[in-house]
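hey so u asked for the seq, here:
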Amino acid sequence: MFKVFTATLSPMLVMFTCMVAGFVLNKKKLLPANATAVLSKLENFILVPALIIRTFMKYCTVASLREQYRLVLYSAGAVAIAIGIAYALSGLFERDAYRKNIYRYALTFGNFGFMGNAIVPAILGEAMLYDHLLFTLPMNLAAYVWGVSILIPPGKGGGSPLKNLLNPTVFAIAIGMALGLLGLEPAMPAFFTSTLDSLSGCMGPIAMVLTGFVIGDYDFGTLLKNKKVYAAAALRLLVFPALYVALFMLLGADEKTLTLCLFAFATPLGLNTVVFPAAYGGDTSTGASMAMVSHTLCVLTIPLMYALLSAVLH
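ran it, structure tokens below
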């Protein structure tokens, strides 16, 4: 168990160091104020799509989809349960309708994208990233259709929830799946796959630099004072992943499904609770506090949870 913990801790510390670097860059004014927007667009329009296209192109086949379709079904069921739990618990954290929605989003989704896409291949191996992307497909759909819409303050518009699906992540999944299913990877020029590999390698570190930079916009001491955020972080990092893994065990899920479930739901509270409210003039302090506290604590909680799961399974 200790070996699993220490092996998992190492890549988590790499991510944490990148986050600290982003925080320092902001506090020391070493990057311009618009760096958040620049890094966010770089992640969402270039780095994450490159990672998704390369992974699906390499591993997505008709046989793999036939073998792994249960991952999508398990995830869809877990997301439905998570949304129900989030609605039930959000009123315990906030009475204000809009801030209640921030907690609903945070209690439903962890940072399964930026953080999950970075730590899964680092801890579980490159091949498991494809399974992680399949498992989180329903989570992506729910986050864009339902999650984004509740993060936009009332009266601020934001467009149709279905239009939110027209985004680089979804397009990248479609392109990657098409290339994989058609078996076109061998026909791709070497420079093209090398470019995707290089961009994919930048996704995790830049995402954590972005996280630290966003947190750096706020007073560190103030972010630590919101006691409700610690309760939300405990649910996000410990209680919910344990609950969903236990449920999947009762349903007879295999070891791979249980592991993917853990890493999808044990990730910290993400940046959407900061980015979307900021874009529409909503409250960002709660989301920033969530991001700072949970990203710091997850350096220990993710290795701990994975070590416990490994001990149970073996």
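The first helix runs from residue 2 to 27. The domain at 2-313 is CATH 1.20.1530.20 (Na+/H+ antiporter like fold).
lmk if thats what u needed
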